[in-house]
Design brief:
This protein is an alpha+beta fold. Helices cover about 30% and strands about 25% of the residues. It has helices at about 45-50, 50-60, 60-70, 75-80; strands at about 5, 10-15, 25-30, 30-40. The strands form 2 sheets. It has a two-stranded antiparallel ribbon with strand order 1-2. It is globular and about 35 Å long. The chain starts with a strand and ends in a 7-residue tail after the last helix.
């Protein structure tokens, strides 16, 4: 488990993580917000490589898991969880 500093762009403060958290680039258009990219070290390929076996068991294939990631929908946090924790 790691400890990160959100004020410093997800910088690692303590723990085993070697890289900071990825930052999602958000763009507003017509009152709606869209995730349009990721800043920082590309951790997604490493994730798919590390969890290859589990992803195949859960989704049937790595390709299917990647397709689901490509179609992710951003949901307002208060509609997803019961208690929102603000930093």
């Amino acid at each position: 488990m790691g400890l990160y500093d959100p004020k410093e762009g997800g910088k690692v403060i303590d723990g085993p993580p070697e890289v900071p958290l990825a930052s999602v680039v958000i763009q507003e258009e017509g009152g709606k917000f869209y995730a349009i990219g990721i800043l920082g070290v590309d951790q997604f390929n490493r994730f798919f490589d590390t969890y290859r076996r589990e992803l195949r068991q859960t989704y049937g294939s790595i390709a299917k898991a990647r397709q689901l990631v490509d179609k992710c929908v951003v949901v307002e946090v208060s509609k997803y969880v019961g208690q929102v924790i603000h930093c």
